[in-house]
């Protein structure tokens, strides 16, 4: 038995029987010897399949026979595989390459998340007709009504005055004709305002109890910022695009693992929504100034939106502060500070 | 992590067939007494090793904008097949990446054509839906054929002899869904259904999908096993549909109870505004993953057990699957948490441990010696099957 010999399992392809053999390498020939097996094969006719981890090597023989061997070094030494066919295996065995590939994927995912997806959804949102968006808004409000909201109990006079404020601001903002204001009891979302695609703004009863019309108008200006930048639509697109990318990356995994892919999208999307909140804040300040109101109203409104609405209290006494990456809105203190800065410098970012 | 590889024959150290399994199999004493030989499946893939395969696949797929993905799919399948062992031999996968690439290109082109055509000719949508309904059984049969022909064990290929009509019968109830959508009046989007007929139009079409889901799952599995063969040895499957209704009914119950329990906790916690951020961002995803994992673990294990335990190979060899719903559910739950916490980087670890558990619960039981039995019943099948495969060499299983 010479150094190049290796043992293998032989399957002839006519029969499922497994036959242990010894493969002797003699010059240009492979001599395959076992119990009742005695034949030679030209070395260049034996085709070694590319290696894959530690799975046994498979060597196809002319005539359909198959050798299965575990002795990687000896098979490599006596048979060899064309280098071009082993690219994937060489990359996999190269620890530095594996680390670089990992780093490239992490960095690539970060840039796709930070720049790629928002860029793409902005471009796509600009091409979607406003009428189509308005349809989405109606559907969205319908399901919110079913699961979350209850009928509003805001008195008619208050609704009228707020609707007047809204119409005036919308006119001064040049908002699309579909922009309208709705009132709902917010249920467990409490004091809140939200904008659905197509310019549908909803404010909750709880919010109207928190502040007067002047400050609520500032909140409406913020919501009109969402309308202006088409944030509702862009957020829907961000959600779909990031879900699509995650499915593309992890889609080869089983259906169970793809359940997990839906959870990171929640984290990713709250990140996008925080960026949009900042954009809408800046827009609100500009719109208030443009409409001849005081941008200070917005800072005051934010102050009233703090948990329990207690102004001037030390932030750490206001209960747990949400970690930034988990929350849909930036921290209120942070937003107030940013608004103060913008008012002082007299300009909003972008 | 040390893995003892299953014995791959060396003439110097002969090992009697079957020794790997029967005597060590705990808790199956009475079964082992009936069956003279028991061959356990084992899975020898390792998370660290597979991580390298996975990350290289991912990297090459991304930088080639997906063109490499068929090669990645084949490499992944080869890794899983090659590490699955029974009776001292492993499986192999031979799928041709070019065929898979062709299939994916066809699918993408069809999707683009559908969207473009739908934009200019809205009526075309109906036609395409009908075409898809007619084509669906054919697609299912094609991909089963592709998968079978390109899988092998001991250098003998698997085959799939199922036909269009039987495939059509298996999925027929699902075809009622698009038919009902086309037949019933449409509800305009954004408007709440007002009268009973509009409610019917909204919910009736999905009714057959819900009612017949267990039937379709069972019928497809039975069709797939019953029309498959290992070489010339046919597989058979006597899976009955009724127990599947029990499984999915219980799964629905499990899901309802889980969602209700989570809702109770959520509404109790909602009383404390300070708890809201934790509630929204930790508890709800956590509860969602737990309920999903348990429901998946339950249905997957029960359906797999039922299917395998009613399947035989070549008339004389039985499959025995003993997956535990609780264990599989727990594995899924830990997997999901690990995948979420690692932003997906622990996917390789998760799929490897799942495959290892699933293989460890599967075995073959044979009256005689499997080696002798297999070589009697399983002969290679003439090239017709493979030529068929090459003629339509397009994998549409995606």
Tell me what the structure shows.
The complex is a heterodimer of chains A (350) and B (398). With 350 residues, chain A is an alpha+beta fold. Chain A folds into two domains: 6-86, PH-domain like, CATH 2.30.29.30; 107-345, no CATH class. Helices cover 53% and strands 15% of the residues of chain A. In chain A, strand 2 and strand 3 (29-34) form a beta hairpin. The longest helix of chain A is centred in the last third of the chain and has 36 residues, at 255-290. The radius of gyration of chain A is 33 Å and the shape is rod-shaped. Mean pLDDT of chain A is 77; it is low at 309-326. With 398 residues, chain B is α+β, with helices and mostly antiparallel strands. Chain B is 61% helix and 11% strand. Chain B has helices spanning 29-34, 47-63, 69-82, 97-120, 124-149, 164-183, 196-203, 207-226, 242-269, 276-309, 325-341, 347-360, 370-377, 384-391, and strands at 37-40, 42-43, 84-86, 89-93, 151-153, 156-160, 228-230, 233-237, 311-313, 317-321, 362-366. Chain B has an eleven-stranded antiparallel β-sheet with strand order 1-11-10-9-8-7-6-5-4-3-2. In chain B, helix 10 (276-309) crosses helix 11 (325-341). The radius of gyration of chain B is 24 Å and the shape is globular. The chains are: A alpha+beta (350), B alpha+beta (398). Chains A and B meet through strand 1, strand 2, strand 7, helix 2 and helix 3 of A and helix 2, helix 3, strand 4, helix 10 and helix 11 of B.
């Amino acid at each position: 038995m010479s150094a190049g010999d290796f043992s293998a399992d032989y399957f002839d392809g006519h029969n499922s029987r497994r036959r242990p053999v010894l493969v002797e390498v003699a010059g240009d020939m492979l001599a395959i010897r076992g119990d009742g097996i005695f034949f030679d094969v030209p070395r260049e006719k034996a085709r070694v399949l590319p290696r894959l981890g530690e799975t046994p090597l498979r060597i196809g023989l002319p005539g359909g026979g198959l050798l299965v061997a575990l002795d990687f070094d000896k098979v490599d030494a006596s048979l060899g595989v064309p280098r071009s066919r082993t690219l994937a295996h060489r990359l996999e065995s190269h620890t530095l390459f594996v680390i670089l590939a990992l780093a490239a994927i992490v960095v690539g995912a970060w840039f796709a998340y930070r720049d790629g997806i928002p860029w793409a959804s902005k471009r796509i949102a600009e091409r979607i007709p406003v009428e189509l968006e308005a349809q989405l808004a109606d559907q969205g409000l319908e399901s919110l009504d079913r699961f979350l909201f209850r009928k509003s109990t805001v008195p008619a006079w208050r609704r009228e005055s707020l609707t007047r404020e809204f119409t005036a601001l919308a006119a001064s903002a040049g908002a699309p004709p579909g922009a309208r204001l709705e009132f709902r009891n917010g249920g467990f979302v409490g004091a809140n305002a939200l904008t659905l695609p197509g310019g549908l703004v909803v404010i909750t009863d709880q919010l109207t109890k928190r502040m007067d019309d002047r400050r609520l108008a500032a909140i409406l200006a913020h919501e009109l910022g969402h309308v202006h930048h088409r944030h509702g639509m862009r957020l829907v697109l961000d959600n779909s695009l990031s879900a699509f990318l995650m499915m593309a990356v992890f889609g080869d995994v089983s259906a169970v693992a793809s359940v997990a892919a839906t959870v990171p999208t929640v984290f990713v999307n709250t990140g996008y929504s925080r960026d949009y909140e900042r954009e809408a804040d800046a827009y609100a300040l500009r719109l208030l100034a443009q409409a001849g109101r005081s941008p200070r109203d917005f800072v005051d409104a934010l102050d009233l939106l703090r948990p329990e609405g207690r102004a001037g209290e030390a932030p750490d006494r206001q209960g747990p502060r949400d970690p930034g990456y988990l929350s849909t809105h930036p921290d209120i203190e942070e937003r107030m500070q940013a608004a103060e800065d913008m008012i002082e410098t007299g300009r909003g970012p972008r | 992590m040390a893995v003892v590889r299953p014995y791959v024959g060396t003439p110097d150290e002969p090992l009697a067939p079957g020794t790997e399994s029967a005597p060590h199999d705990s808790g199956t004493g009475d079964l082992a007494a009936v069956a003279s030989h028991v061959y356990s499946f084992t899975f020898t893939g390792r998370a660290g090793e597979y991580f390298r395969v996975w990350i290289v696949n991912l990297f090459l797929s991304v930088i080639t904008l997906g063109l490499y993905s068929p090669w990645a799919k084949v490499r992944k399948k080869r890794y899983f097949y090659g590490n699955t062992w029974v009776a001292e031999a492993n499986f192999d996968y031979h799928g041709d990446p070019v065929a898979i690439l062709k299939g994916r290109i066809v699918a993408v082109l069809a999707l683009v054509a559908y969207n473009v055509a739908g934009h200019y000719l809205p009526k075309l949508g109906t036609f395409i839906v009908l075409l898809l309904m007619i084509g669906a059984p054919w697609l299912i049969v094609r991909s089963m054929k592709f998968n079978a022909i390109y899988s092998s064990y001991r250098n003998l290929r698997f085959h799939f002899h199922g036909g269009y009509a039987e495939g059509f019968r298996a999925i027929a109830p699902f075809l009622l869904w698009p038919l009902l959508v086309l037949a019933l009046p449409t509800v305009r989007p954004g408007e709440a259904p007002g009268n009973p007929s509009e409610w019917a139009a909204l919910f009736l079409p999905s009714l057959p999908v819900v009612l017949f889901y267990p039937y379709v799952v069972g019928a497809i599995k039975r069709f797939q096993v019953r029309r498959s063969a290992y070489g010339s040895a046919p597989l058979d499957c006597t899976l009955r549909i009724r127990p599947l209704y029990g499984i999915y009914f219980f799964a629905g119950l499990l899901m309802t109870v889980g969602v209700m329990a989570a809702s109770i906790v959520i509404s109790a916690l909602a009383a404390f505004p300070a708890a809201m951020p934790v509630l929204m961002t930790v508890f709800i995803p956590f509860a969602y993953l737990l309920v999903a994992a348990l429901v998946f673990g339950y249905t997957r294990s029960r359906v797999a057990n039922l299917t395998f335990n009613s399947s035989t190979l070549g008339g004389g060899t039985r499959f025995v699957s003993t997956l535990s719903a609780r264990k599989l559910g727990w594995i899924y739950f830990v997997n999901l948490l690990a995948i979420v916490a690692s932003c997906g980087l622990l996917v390789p670890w998760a799929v490897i441990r799942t495959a290892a558990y699933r293989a460890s619960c599967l075995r073959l039981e044979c009256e005689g010696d499997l080696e002798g039995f297999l070589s009697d019943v399983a002969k290679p099948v003439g090239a017709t099957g493979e030529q068929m495969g090459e003629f339509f060499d397009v994998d549409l299983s995606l």
